[in-house]
Amino acid sequence: MASVVTSAVVGSVFVRPALARDRAMWEVMFDSYREAAGLPPDREISDRLWGWILDPNHQVQALVADDGLALVGFAHYRRFPRPIMADECLYLDDLFTTVQARGRGVARALLDHLVELRDLESMAMLRWTTNPSNAAARKLYGTYGSIANSVTYNAALPNAPSPNAT
Length: 166
Fold this sequence. Notes:
The chain is α+β, with helices and mostly antiparallel strands. Helices cover 29% and strands 23% of the residues. It has four helices and six strands. A six-stranded mixed β-sheet has the order 1-2-3-4-5-6, sandwiched between helices. The radius of gyration is 16 Å and the shape is globular.
């Protein structure tokens, strides 16, 4: 199980691990996240992912940003080994904030929480990818790290959804 870190954000927004009671609000955001990636909402996918998030034995974990009235963002992440360095790292798979929360420091708070978790667990790095055309995200991300010197390839199953969606 992950170490618990609680981070306060601007105003009364807090970052915390996702809880079972968060399902409905998380799903609305997850559907919006998929739509922004060019994918339709899919109950089967959200059911499977939510099951992973609540399973303490599954590698996928989730943080949510909570403003006291509603969830305003999420981050899905996992630990991964890096064999070439014989160390362990955190991988941020998905980061999303509601339109209403943008510009309030919510994405930064989620990233700060992950950096704190990385440090607390002595992980070598936090890694993530983003769409090259996402200028707002890239501006924020540039304050946390540098662009990796690598290119990502996707070898998908035939008829699978676009591997370039995320």
